[in-house]
Amino acid sequence: MPEGNNLYEFGPFRLDPAERLLLRDGKAVPLTPKAFELLVLLVENRGHLLKKDELIERVWPNTFVEEANLAQNVSALRKALDNKNGGAQYIETVPKRGYRFTAAVVDHTPAAGVESPAAEPPSPRPATRVALAGSAVVAFALCSSPARHRCSRTCPRGFLFCVFVFMVSPFFVPCAD
Question: How much is the pLDDT for 40?
Answer without folding.
Answer: 95
